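Protein chain data
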Amino acid sequence: MKVTVENKKGLNKDIKVFIDKETMNSYMDEKYEEIKGSVNLKGFRPGKVPKEILKRQFGKAVFGEVLDKVLKETSTKALEEKKIKPAGQPKLDLKTYGEDKDLEYVLSVTELPKVEIKSLENIKFDEYTVKIDESETEKRIKEIAKNQPNFKEVSADTKAKKGDLVSLDYKATVDGKDFKGSEGKNTQLTLGKDLFLKGFDEQLIGVKKDDEKIVEATLPENFPEKELVNKKAKFNCKILSVKQSEEVKIDDDFAKNLGAKDLKDLKTLISKQINDEYKNSLDQLSKNQILKEIEKIKVEELPENLIEEEVKILSQGMSEEETKKNKKNFEEKAKTRIKAGLILNEFGEKNQIKVTEQEVQAEVQKQLRMMPGQEKMVMDFYQKNPSALASLRGTVYEEKILNLIKEKGKANKKEIAKEEAEKILKEAHDHDHSHGEEKKETKKKSLTTSAKEKKPTTKKAKSKPAAKKTKKVSKK
């Protein structure tokens, strides 16, 4: 096989591949030997059919399969030999081919540009740690205690007031008639929250244990029995108990109920929790700083086909007029994102960063925890959408790259108070939030672009029907 690069300037390359007819004939002979054992022809024993007979019977089909195989293998080898990584799908144009002939074709490809990543090892960024004051930890624990009311039953003659927990049985009627769902047993209501029916709780203020009370309320729009919607119902309520909330005592028992060993351990856990809440957001700011520094790295030329694809993504859902109006802006954004993706991908490859299946599944589990009650729906989504799972893999890959850049870079470490952390995060949020979101997401497609993922398409030779066989050409 002889491989030559026709044009060496710029990113668009034409790679000429030449394979002599002797090599092609050896591939053909191998294929005839392969099929000989499975062919049954009248007058010949299995495995004993002469090659010339096979050639007459199956020559065109055999040549088509051999051509496909040779194109797959040699196009991949040609790119590897010349160390060319395609930025898109290569096109394959057959020049000469046929049985007992040399094979010559041209592989037209846009090459990914060479990018410099050495400077990433000295990249500068701010790295924050938040110092949590003990008073902040205690304040958070008090908030937790406040949201865990401790109700205790009061004496039989104590009247219920706002904030008390009232337990009751009820039987309701509309126009003196029972209806489906008109009875309730041991229903518990915190007076003043108005969570049952509008205006229901306030009518129970002043009741005592064992009281009976008639409460009137309008049935809501979403009531199951449609004919009763917006009708007034009478609820005959039997009060079972009245409980008042007591302040929760913050002690070791309280801490144990929350899963800590004791109160001291709870304070440590809460302090870490608060720190982590700020750390995650501040870490993202550090990564945004890294991405901004990456934007300053010069790349001589970017592939036009990648820019066009990115512009299409940025203009999705827009009218033709809007797209034209914003074209220049989109092109600049596309260039920025593609450049960042290429640099990060090169860094990832050079440092042999891989994403394991376990890491992808861990990210899926993280998504599930973020959507409680919808776990099955989320899991089904990823199982039915391989592209979504691939995007998730891209996110994990990018995260691993940025974390390694942080490890190798020069961090300006800062310990700040919680108030300063809040100020920094607010300023970052207010400073063009939508633009900030764009910076956080480098192009997933650019990140994963590699020669291994691209398949050459074949430009058919009009006068040579056998070229149709090349439609299945793949670099894999």
Summary: The mean pLDDT is 84. The first strand starts at residue 2 and ends at 5. The two ends are 19 Å apart (CA to CA).
